[in-house]
Write a structure and sequence with these properties.
mainly beta, 2,3-Dihydroxybiphenyl 1,2-Dioxygenase, domain 1, Jelly Rolls, seven-stranded antiparallel beta sheet
Length: 353
Amino acid sequence: MSGSKIQTAEIVLPSGNLNETVSFFSDKVGFQLESIYPADDPTEAIMYGFGLRIHFKKDDSIHPGTISIAGAKSNNLTAPNGTLIQFHEPNGSYILPEGNQSIQYSRLMEGQWKIGRAGMEYRDLIPDRYGGRFIASHIRILKAGPVSDYVHFHKIRFQMIFCNKGWAKLVYEDQGSPFIFQAGDCVLQPPEIRHQVLENSDGFEVVEISSPASHMTCTDPKSNLPTGETKPDRNYNGQNFIHHIAKKAKWRPCRYPGFEKQDFGFYPATNGLARVSVVRSLEQSKSTLETQNGEFHFIFLINGKLNIQIDQKNTFSLNTGDSITIPGGMDYSMIECPIGSKFLEILFLRNVT
């Protein structure tokens, strides 16, 4: 198609009874008739509406299709030609399922890697997706070089990326020049912030947490990054961009006795939605019995070993690269965590210190 002069594009649907179909799409859906021919016995018509051009033809072999229209409140309709017309609320952000909580225990040695977007390999850390409410992915790119990524954004409630191994060069909308994102660093990607992965090292790995599990990734070919501006306090749909740099962060006391943490500053940046931190063991000892009643609690073991007892009866042994979710309302404690072991912890609940 390179070099061709494309003037218009359209979707082709069967006409059925052309007069009835044209009247239906005009009167009930809101399309406008653009052209119809031949005049003496019409067999084709072109209509336009909602940014969509439809070419109706008398051809029963054409699939009747589905047209989805956002922003209109109405029951779904079926046109005389068989086309389904679906109406829905504008999907400016996402649809958040009611969800459900369960213990999801993922082991690196038993995981399956699948090829995902832009050639990246994905390992699913929460197979049941918490009823569609959350997704956690272990993502890797084995070979160094430029990434076949493009400027894009996500329609999400929450999204963060933690660099587990290696490094990558990233660039974000209104956040200055491209920067190196390396092991131990983390970024909070606010809803719909434009961004792009430019290149990576050998063995680059991240852990990505998003809510909801199913969300839309949209390209933005009109945006050029970097934008040439730096707006550290810019609000993106109620959240701020955060780039946690591990080498510059301080270790502080943690609620678990015998542990300390680096807090990433996500709680104020997400308006109280989530707390994220890296926790490490200072001594070989058990933690106190803990309980949380939030909607999401996820732990990914960065290195070392961690045994977690849940409900005072089930013990799960985590080695490097393993992860677990702890449902709200269940007691848990760290019963073994050798000195220097580190884990990534994500909490969706209020008033946690």
